[in-house]
Amino acid sequence: MSNKVNQVATKSLMSKYLNKETMKYVLTTHFWGPVSNFGIPIAAIYDLKKDEELISGSMTSALIVYSTVFMRYALAVTPKNYLLFGCHVINTAAQAGQGFRYINYHYMGGKEEAAKETEKTV
Predict the structure, then answer these.
(1) Residues 6+ apart with CB under 8 A from 14
(2) DSSP alpha helices (H): ranges in 55-109?
(3) Distance separating alpha carbons of residues 87 and 29, to the nearest angstrom
(4) Which of 18, 28, 74, 80 has the most crowded CB, counting CB atoms within 10 A?
(5) Is 87 in contact with 38 (CB distance < 8 Å)?
(6) Cβ contacts of residue 57 below 8 Å, gap of 6+?
């Protein structure tokens, strides 16, 4: 009986999610564009743990502007591309975190604190 229930549940899920419309969507740039774009926010999140001295202020600013513009674009196209929108929301947040770290390090005394910490350990 359990095997029969599993088969019915599997068929139900497959017919709901693995249908022509889903496959048609997965094979479009509306899907693969945002998926490939997710490399940028993933890298930004990963970089949040790296040394602040490595952060490029101009590149971080450019990526914040880029993602903000593309958030708007993702909702302006028809049909709305919520996957692209989500990608750029995450990227904007991650880049803003990097921007805060950059400003803190270069303009709010972070560099001096790091130097003091280095002196204490030596």
Answers:
(1) none
(2) 57-76, 82-107
(3) 14
(4) 74
(5) yes
(6) 99, 102, 103, 106
